[in-house]
Design goal:
With 152 residues, the protein is mostly helical. 63% of the residues lie in helices and 3% in strands. Strands 1-2 form a two-stranded antiparallel ribbon. It is globular.
Length: 152
């Protein structure tokens, strides 16, 4: 699982590069034919990782309920995201995944509640399944972000 956890650092680095290189307007823009924007996709992957790994393990999430409510599955951008919010998401990209790796290495994810994901219909039965799916999910949203960026 060490390999999978290290891949998170790489995907999060790609997401951070979008936050660093694109303007606030570009991060917030919803191009024609899309339902969301780049900043929503990045916030969504952070929240999803937390819900799939921490909440389903009965552990407190490392992000606030406000952030969860804004970026969880089924939501969409409802207002212009400020630079302060972008900075918070940028920081969460790495603080969350670093803590996840530490907690995994310290065997904190022991009481995993099975969950069937809507995307693929697969059932996550343990933390290793959840990590594998979260990486797939981040890759999928990376593709969405590339399409969004191309449409700007």
């Amino acid at each position: 699982m060490e390999f999978s956890l290290s891949v998170f650092g790489k995907t999060r680095g790609y997401f951070k590069s979008f936050l660093d290189k694109l303007t606030l307007d570009d991060l917030n823009k919803i191009p024609d034919g899309f339902k969301n924007n780049i900043i929503w996709n990045i916030g969504h992957v952070v929240v999803t990782e937390q819900l799939l790994l921490y909440r389903l393990s009965g552990l407190p999430t490392l992000v606030s309920e406000e952030v969860i409510e804004k970026y969880k599955v089924g939501t969409k951008p409802d207002k212009y995201v400020t630079q302060k919010e972008v900075d918070e998401i940028s920081e969460l990209l790495f603080t969350t995944i670093n803590k996840t790796q530490e907690d995994y290495n310290n065997n904190k994810f022991v009481n995993y509640k099975e969950y069937t994901v809507s995307t693929t219909g697969d059932t996550l039965r343990n933390i290793d399944d959840a990590i594998s799916f979260a990486l797939f999910h981040e890759g999928m949203h990376f593709g969405y972000i590339l399409a969004l960026r191309k449409s700007l």
